[in-house]
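Checked the freezer inventory, then went back to the computational side. Two predictions to log before the end of the day. The first one is the construct we discussed on Monday; recording sequence and tokens without edits.
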Amino acid sequence: MKQPRRKQKRETPHIFDRTIKYLLHETGTANTVSLINALFERQYAYDSPVRFAKTEGLRKRGKTLELFHADIILSVADDDFAIEFQIGDDEIIGLRLFEYGFRHAHGTRRITGRGELVEMDLPDACVVYFENTKTTPEHITFRLNHKTSGKFFDYDVRVFKMAEQTLESLERQKLLLLLPFCLLRFRKELEHTGTKPEARLAVAKKERQAIDDLEDILLRARESGFLGNYDGIMVLESISRMHDELYGAYPEFQEAGMAVKERVEFTLADYRRKLIKETQTMAQSMAQSMAQSMVAAKSAEASAKTKDEILGLFKQGYTVEEVEKMLAQEKAEDTETSTASR
């Protein structure tokens, strides 16, 4: 049996980069802080301020200008970090990270006097390998030598290998943004199955079990209060997209794919129900609080609406601004009537 034909236009070369950037930028800051804590052995509070730096610009090479692009440069509590996400080995990754860090540090350089001293703060750096080989380094150092003086400067780069992480370790470190990339673990195994459908089916079953486990992790994170509803939805959708891109073209994975979509849709619906319920509860609490303060502010003789009547207005769909305007108008009318009767 021939291997199934792949789609003509595939996003695999870009989906890894797009997925992690999407999750980092769009989910709550606690997820970003937990990633920094794990990669760089820090202990920042989850509500620490996070700021993403601009990672694109122009540089001159010879007579031409070219666009340079760094993966992620961000700050947590005013400390800078550079992260490169890799799907394979890259011998000059240390040089690239130094270049990214140098360009970022250049914007906050400090010059003493007439230029006797120029200081720059390079960000701490880390490479995250979604896949690795036997030759993937455990640590990377970029060394800048000055032969005349014999001095050198080492820019150390940490290495984080997804393949060495268990689901338990990812959950313990709250690395929920990396969960979609766990599905990569079956790609090489699938490549080794050749044209045997029964072998591919065995891999498909493993992947389906892994997705069950990933969903359990997200559920526990949601129940603990760490993962918000919207964040959970985004991670789940990313898991589904990753499955479709990596394995969607294989017939043996169709059953798993359908199960993934059903599970995602069910979970999304459950999350949305909780969101609606939470929103309704918040709105009702807000309405009651406003009604109580408004009723308390009026005298017993005033003809203002009662608490139940105010709540009734909210239930009819009136906004807070509309209710406040109605009450203000009524108060003005009461004042005008009271003044005229004197």
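The second is the one RB wanted added to the comparison set:
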Amino acid sequence: MNADSQQLPVIACVPDAIDAADRESHFELARTLLSSCTTSRETLSNGLAFRLPPNSLEAVARFVANERKCCPFMTFDIKVEPNGGAVSLSMTGPTGTREVIEAELGLQGRCGCQ
């Protein structure tokens, strides 16, 4: 395959991939987790990383289970620190992923608990 025939990854969200009955609660959970519950946020070249409280693991897992349906281009990494420590979530993907996350969640300029 030559360089001209290689396809770039497609960055396209598919909100309808989440059941209509669950969509509103999913986006509310996303806003809560990734803004008001976040203890720190790191900008990555290909996405964002969030540090969350230890008690957020189940909510993070629920968020990722739905988010991967509507954003199939993203990679999600969940890290749980030992001894009941913090939970970290990285959301990465092709060029433009960070901007999509920020725009979808209204995160521009926000970091940490409000």
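For RB: Helices lie at 20-36, 57-70, 97-105. The domain at 20-105 is CATH 3.30.1360 (Gyrase A; domain 2). Let me know if you want it refolded.
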